[in-house]
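Backbone-to-sequence.
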């Protein structure tokens, strides 16, 4: 074993030895050369029992490695739904993810909103006017852009409840939770 005893034990999957080392006072937040903790490794492996044990013994839920990913982000990326839920519960619903979301729509659908007014910049500054079949992007803050990048080439903003209701009821726009995204990706992977 190397100096990083808990990480080695987590990687081997030996839960009994993991408990022994924790009971002996080994630091549950030790980090390897990449800054990953035993919790990061347990989450990445999908080892629910080790994750529980580490959380119960004070593992830092928000510690990041060089990749700037928390254990929550690692679990989410790996599609370990039970672990994502456990980490959310342990963090009292607080997750250090700042995920932005947008959905593409033909501009013709958005033009059905009675107060729709495209920004002047969409037809000036050398840009062509949008055709009905051009795709535009509705973002989680209900702004609309020509590109998928938030706040880039904004063509419409409206903070009214009427706009939000139109997006929800007429367009079926809903920002999915991170778990819904993971489930959608997981169920699509088997096709």
């Amino acid at each position: 074993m190397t100096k990083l005893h808990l990480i080695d034990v987590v990687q081997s999957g030996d839960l009994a030895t993991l408990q022994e080392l924790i009971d002996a006072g080994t630091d549950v937040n030790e980090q390897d050369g990449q800054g990953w903790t035993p919790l990061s490794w347990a989450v990445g492996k999908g080892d629910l029992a080790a994750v529980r044990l580490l959380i119960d013994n004070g593992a830092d839920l928000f510690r990041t490695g060089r990749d700037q990913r928390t254990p929550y982000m690692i679990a989410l990326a790996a599609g370990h739904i039970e672990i994502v839920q456990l980490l959310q519960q342990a963090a009292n619903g607080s997750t250090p993810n700042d995920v932005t979301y947008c959905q593409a729509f033909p501009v013709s659908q958005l033009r059905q909103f009675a107060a729709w007014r495209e920004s002047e910049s969409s037809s000036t500054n050398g840009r062509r006017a949008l055709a009905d079949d051009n795709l535009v992007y509705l973002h989680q803050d209900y702004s609309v852009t020509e590109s998928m990048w938030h706040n880039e080439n904004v063509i419409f903003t409206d903070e009214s409840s009427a706009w939000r209701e139109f997006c929800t009821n007429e367009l079926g726009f809903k920002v999915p939770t991170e778990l819904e995204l993971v489930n959608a990706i997981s169920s699509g992977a088997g096709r």
